[in-house]
Amino acid sequence: MTAMIQNQESMTPAVETKMTARDVKVFYGEKQAIKGVSIDVDMDNVTAFIGPSGCGKSTFLRTLNRMNDTVASARVEGTITLDGEDIYAPSMDVVQLRARVGMVFQKPNPFPKSIYENIAYGPRIHGLAHGKADLDVIVEKSLRRAGLWDEVKDRLHDSGTALSGGQQQRLCIGRAIAVEPEVILMDEPCSALDPIATAKIEELIHELRGRYAIVIVTHNMQQAARVSQRTAFFHLGELVEYGVTSDIFTNPKAERTKDYITGRYG
Amino acid sequence: MTGPAILLLLAGLGAIAWVSARARAMRLQTAARASGRRDAVHSLPGYHGWYVALWTLVPAGIFLAVWANVAPGLVMQDVLSSPAAQSLPADDFSRSAVLGEARAIATGNQAGAFNPLSQGLVEPYKDAIGKYGIAGAALALVLAFAGGAYAFTRVRPDFRARTRVERLVMATLLIASLLAIITTLGIVASLLWESFRFFSMVSPVDFLFGVKWSPQSAALGYGNDDAFGAVPLFWGTIFIGAIIAMVVAIPLGLMSAIYLTQYASPTVRKWMKPTLEMLAGVPTVVYGYFAALTIAPALRDFAVKIGIHGASSESALAAGLVMGVMIIPFVSSMADDSIAAVPQSMRDGSLAMGATTSETIRRVLIPAALPGVVGGVLLAVSRAIGETMIVVMAAGLAANLTLNPFASVTTVTTQIVQLLTGDQEFDSAKTLAAFALGLVLFIVTLLLNIVALRVVKKYREAYE
């Protein structure tokens, strides 16, 4: 990619690459939303996608677990691999893929079921638990990892929709964790939350780092700076710049990146 | 002066009032504008026209409506006080026959009298009708003139005719909606009254819990107290409308709604949904003869072939199956709405966990849509148990208390039709039983509707 400038020299070489995208193009009908994006997502770092609204960062995120399949008019070209395996290959089972690449949405979307059932949903459909005791263990472990256990352990059978917005979002993260994914995609997970709830989610992202490959889409540059180690700047469906977060924010190579992070547009 | 003539005259007066008031308003407003007081002009001239025309027509119209109800009494009073009335027969029946005949001759509806007594009353009748006709017309015209004149003097550039007319429009709309409510109350009152009369003849306990229904024998005088036991009817209604019909309608309606909302492509949906909804547009009488002439005989033959005893050509199954088909669009469109109302984010959430579409439907969409679906089913049940034509044609009249779907059962609606068709006197328990049945049906469907709407509403709130 000509428009993309890799800060190769500042990347540490020893990271384990989890997902790679090569020349990915996404079309909605005739309209091209993503114009040839190549990027590597690794296990040890949190990767943030930033860019102005409509730049394609969410669309690209959704290609990583094939959620774009649910949009009838969407078409994806290029290669995306998970552990070297092409996820758009005919042999790839979408259902298995999504269990390995979990997703957290912009607006908390717990199911209208109890907190327990929300977490147990994934393990149940994937047959991860053997018996009730096993499921209890998974639920507790997932809620602990999501930083929610202490707040809800006495009311596991209350409705998940009765929790506060921030708790609901952590419930959704816990729900994604419960199926033991390898990658977690977060699509602007804090945009519907207040600052305190946002801080909790960001803290949680720090704790989850290293255990899962995490990709977070955000329109909040401070958030990207706080939670991520790698930042990718998208503009008009192109990946303009990708590199170490501190470099992107202090020493952007591309003019467009500089203009965006200094607030000239976006 | 006859009714149509006075109405025409009033309409003419109204038109004149409209035109002249409008002209006056125009003139006054032009004058006001010329003097530079533009802000003093409030309403368009047309509104002044309407204001005066309405003042001309409405009071006179109301008076005429009242008069039409009062005048016959006054006429009768006059006639009875005439000398010819002294020779009227004493008993009520022949008295009213004579009076009726005299009036028919006086108004020109009958050429000559059968009863010589009537002939003498024709003249007093004619006089009285003429007298009160003219009096009424004169009063109406006076009112029209008075109203018109009063309103006409109020036409000024700054008079707010527009607001006044608006108020009348609102009053008209209010009356229209009140009429519907009053009609409902009237129906309920008549149901209650006639049922009350029925229950003074037959004990409510016998009616609600008795298991023998045989109104004809009671009417003919050799029945017993059990003859009005309505349990077999209630059972038949539930068996056909709430059990057999729902066994057909719920799965089919639900599955078609799921297919249409989750799997069908937009093109398929565009064609299939209206086609399915066409089922709701088929007249119920067509369903009725389809059930009676096609389904019922086929079912009986089938039952006989597999050796079921007591198979009737008017079976509960035939009526229930066809009614179920009729109800499908209700269930499916309610289910469709409630599944579509489940936010897309729920679906996405489930799919992103690696659930398949059918797992998502089963574990997330259906539970979330369930209250709406239940509400839809309750509405469908209330529709089914009130349905008449299909059961009248296909379900039969025998009040059997049976679990055999091939046997003939009867329903509440069928029996109401049966009790009230033909010549009936209105004071026998047999006829009044129809009102009691109607009351029960009304209460049950009302409750079902209330519960259903409440369930649906509660659920809607959860996502907004």
Automatic annotation (TrEMBL), chain B:
It comes from the Bacteria. It is a multi-pass membrane protein. One of its GO terms (molecular function) is phosphate transmembrane transporter activity. Residues 235-452 form the ABC transmembrane type-1 domain. It holds the Pfam family BPD_transp_1. GO terms for cellular component: plasma membrane. GO terms for biological process: phosphate ion transport. It is found in: Cell inner membrane; Cell membrane. The chain crosses the membrane at residues 49-70, 132-153, 173-193, 233-260, 280-303, 315-335, 364-382, 432-456. This is Phosphate transport system permease protein. It comes from Sphingobium chungbukense. The lineage of its organism: Bacteria, Pseudomonadati, Pseudomonadota, Alphaproteobacteria, Sphingomonadales.
